[in-house]
Amino acid sequence: MFLPDVMEKYKAPISVLVVVYTPDLQVLLLERADHPGYWQSITGSQHQGEELSQTAARETAEETGIDTTNFLLKDLNFTNKYEIFQEWRWRYAPGVTHNTEHVFSLLLPKPAPVIVSPREHLRYAWLPQQEAIEKVFSCSNAEAIRNLLPLVRANRR
Questions:
Q1: Average pLDDT, stretch 35-58?
Q2: pTM confidence score
Q3: Could you give the number of structural domains in the chain?
């Protein structure tokens, strides 16, 4: 089996995390359908041949219905490397245990209605920054939300 065949059968261990927020630090969270009670920002694996910004835009549209071309989608040039939860390793090629996640932000002028993908998420919520930090299950997601304040300040200049 050639590597391209393997990569099309399995998810790539390269993904994006897109934190959607407003100038007053309201943060969009999604509740996972495959693990109720797990709240997170937008996430998704890179497809073969895709730029990371394309992955971020595609995943945002798929998971929320939001078209990023109308808003500020920003690569934060920050990555997290983490061990893939055992329960989700079947999605990756045999022997793959870690994922590299690239963090993006998406600034919207105000909280917007979201169309969740029912096979991926149960519901969504717009929460103040601190509540969002406390609600997400992933420490890397909490850190990305925590780092929004400098972005808001930079966008005001």
A1: 96
A2: 0.89
A3: 1
